[in-house]
Design goal:
Blueprint: E1 2-3, E2 15-16, E3 24-28, E4 34-39, H1 41-61, E5 69-74, H2 76-87, E6 92-98, E7 116-122, H3 130-142, E8 146-152, H4 160-177
Parallel strand pairs: 5-6, 6-7, 7-8
Antiparallel strand pairs: 1-2, 3-4
Helix pairs in contact: 1-2
Length: 183
């Protein structure tokens, strides 16, 4: 869905919502257990490239080429947004990643020094385990991103309090950078 200027609460930008399929599968470990999720690495990189092309085309179509892009996603949406940060580091200015996990086995070298990221996750999340969220936070931070992690006491969910905290984080980021980040 694309919301054009004038159709939402702000008139300076465009909200683009995308949906897509990212294939993951359970992989046997040899001891009878299975790693919960393994992603096809080529597909992740290809999908990140496709998403980049889509975003660039939307920027052009809505005459927002010079505007910063903010990604927000939950679960697989957060995963592909994190991959987008690492595969195409020049595209996004900020990201709010809820219930994310690292999906790139060997993330490419990226300069994310101009990027801020908020990771939101539950301490009892059975899918995006806290250790996975911490690994992703470290990967983004090691690439230079300004990373904050917000924990809640639940599982694989996005409580309203975290949505409000994300809004506050984006407002703070907007004020600190003097750039209007959100449509």
């Amino acid at each position: 869905m694309v919301r054009a200027p004038g159709e939402g609460r702000r008139t300076e930008g465009v909200l683009v919502r995308v949906r897509g399929g990212l294939v993951f599968r359970r992989i046997p470990t040899g001891d009878g257990s299975a790693h919960p999720f393994t992603f096809d690495q080529d597909e992740v990189v290809d999908r990140a490239g496709d998403l980049r092309a889509f975003v660039v085309a939307a920027q052009d179509r809505h005459q927002l080429v010079d505007r910063p892009v903010v990604a927000m996603g939950f679960s697989n949406g957060a995963n592909i947004a994190a991959a987008l940060l690492l595969v195409t580091p020049d595209l996004l200015r900020a990201a709010v990643l809820a219930a994310p996990m690292p999906i790139l086995d060997r993330p490419p070298q990226a300069d994310l020094s101009a990027v801020a990221a908020l990771l939101i996750s539950g301490r009892r999340d059975p899918i995006a385990a806290p250790s996975d969220v911490e690994t992703l936070a470290a990967t983004l931070s090691d690439a230079g991103a300004n990373v904050e992690v917000l924990w809640h006491g639940g599982g694989h969910e996005l409580p309203k309090s975290c949505v409000q905290a994300a809004r506050g984080w984006l407002d703070k980021l907007r004020q600190a950078t003097a750039i209007d980040l959100l449509p």
